[in-house]
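Work Package 3 (structural annotation) set out to generate three-dimensional models for the target panel prioritized at the project kickoff. During this period the team completed the workflow that converts sequence records into discrete structure tokens, so that structures can be stored uniformly alongside our sequence database. As a representative example, we reproduce one entry of 799 residues exactly as it appears in the project archive.
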Amino acid sequence: MFVSSFNSTLSSLLWSTFLGDPVAGSLPAAYGNSGAPLGVDKNGNVFAPGMVYYDVNLPTVAAIERAAPNAFGGGFVARISPSDAPGIALGPGSLTFPNTGIGLVSGAQTVYVLAAGSQPLDITSITASANYKLASDNCRATLAGGSSCQVTVEFKPASSGTLSGYLTVVTNARTARALLSGVGVPVPIIAVSPQRLTFPATSVGTPSAPLVVTINSTGSMPLINNGISIGGTNSADFSETDDCPATLNPGQSCTVNVVMQPLADGSLTAALTINTNAVSGSVNPTLSGAGPTYTLSASPSSPTVSAGLSTASTITLTSEAGLTGTVKLGCSVPSGSGITCSFAPAKVTLAGSPANSTATISTSATTAGGSYKVIVYGSLTGLAAVFTPVTLGVTPKQGLTTLYSFAGSPDGVNPSAAVVLGSGGVLYGTTTYGGTANAGTVFSLTPPASASGVWTETVLYRFTGSPDGARPYAAAVLGSGGVLYGTTSIGGTANLGTVFSLTPPATPGGVWTESVLHSFTGGGDGEGPADLVIGGAGVLYGTTEDGGTANGGTVFELKPATGGSWTERILHSFPGTAGPNAVVIGAGGVLYGTTQQGGTSGSGTVFTLTPPASPGGVWTETVLYSFQSSGDGANPSAGVVIGSGGVLYGTTSNGGINFCSALVCGTVFSLTPPASPGGAWTESVLHSFTGFTGGGDGGNPHADLVIGGAGVLYGTTLGDGEVDNGTVFSLTPPASPGGVWTETVLHDFTGGSDGGHPYAGLVIGTSGLLYGTTNDGGNTTCSGGSGDPGCGTVFSWQP
């Protein structure tokens, strides 16, 4: 056998595994290339061994060449690679299946499909002849050259005798076939229906109506009946009769009638065993039922209740098949929900007719709003527990909840600022006093894991005065990476206040790191900083109450620089005793704010500060409105919030139309932008506080407002109300523009455990929950810096 290669026209020989003697008869025949075996690998390469006198131009594999012993020629192995055309090979080329019963399925066998060429092999179809079936294949429509996939084939004979066929693979190379062969043999086959019998509850000693199992002989040989019996745990509670003969010919059927006759109460299980000569062995339909039992139902099954209150549901017990006995009732409730239940009566006697018990389901004040699954169950000796679900809808408790009362040094004292809401519902805030040096603290308040748990306060930092600052009157703000930024009203290198950062630890439970970003020096730099706001690129904007070129306070920015340093720049200095409050950032980076005094009547203003067209330019201050110390309000002690359409909302601590002691009680106002740029803004008094009179709705608000759903405004008043400790209020917009806003007092502080005198505003959490602080009250055995009992609280208010 020789392998040769010719050119495309077959006119000349390119190479061959035998080229003959270079000179006729010069070499013995032993040195020629005699016939040699060929080898083919899975990629279609052909390997041919041989020896020639000259081996020039032979496609040899150098790694396995060797010289002939006589050195006249070269021994070689030639590798002939497949052409660029696609090719296919099947392996093995034939499958032989074991003898298989008619109608049954053999185990699967595998054929590999190889893309033998270097080009992709497109597979059009893969089919199997009658009596064979494709069990699976992982062949894609196209196989890359040299890759393979596999097909599994099963034998399912439809008749007896030797049955041959093919696995056929149609491709773009050729149609390849693997021979399939097997022998079908007659076998008995059994089919049973149903596979499970379930009996209704039946009185003890009373036979049930029979349930039927049908046996079919579906094979090609007679089915021999070797016996039908009942076994299992409660086999004595069941019996059977049947019309099954000793032999069922193919296509014949018979029936088995099963009766349950309980010997006692409770659940019953057994199995019907049908023994035959079927190849599948015995068949065992399951039997189940119960002696007399009872049911539970609840009405209503989906009650609702407010947190802290209770609701009732009637539990009806109904016996079946004349069951009697005493049932003890109980319930299962979600862990940590604060839900409990009781029953009256707790034990119910069944005597044939339905009986009732009243389930009282109670919630705690801390039960969170939501849907809870309460499972009511009954226990009767000898029977499994019986259950019925009650879906309890809980609406959160409306009103104020004190989350934490400050205890005095080294804890914080007198929180004068609002809290900020962080990740996981954690609240962060400051206290003006307290700590180890009585210079104030920064704290966190972590919500409990369950609704009935307790909030956990942690002091993150205690100020010392110098150089880190003291007396933080302002709220902290939350920046990137969970870093807190804030101000102290005094302390620092000149004792005129600081801007600080507080960086969380790398691992939970570690120490927070305080850094002073800027110490105010007075004069043009400003002194006594208030709240901050974070702008683009992490720039901090804030105000100082005093200092500046005219000692009327300033607006400043603090920019982060490389190396961790920060650069302060004064954007505007106010004249006289203006005393700016906090600013907010509006569209285009415009800052909006208020001053406590100044303006045309010295009663304060609302202003904007517009950034320059190019970086480093001069910011432009514009007074939008000057309060007139009349019915329009006076002396705002807080900033504004921006509502829909760019409308500004805020409070004045004085002014309005009602007097509180020697002062007017203050207002809530809106300031509407003009219809066209450059026009006048329009101020409207939405509410004038009444102090002690007219229902005692509070007076002298010192805090920012927050805007809730449907445009409702929420805020606090520092004083007045029913007992002169301040209030939480809401202000609801009218149904139509121009109508009257409706004020509602949500909570009157008493100065006791609920706190008193909220200097700060509110923040809105999930589901409209409000969070805030009071400067005093709470733990009244603690004496704070305000002179009033208590060191202050953190509270929530559920709408």
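Residues 18-35, 52-73 have pLDDT under 50 and may be disordered.
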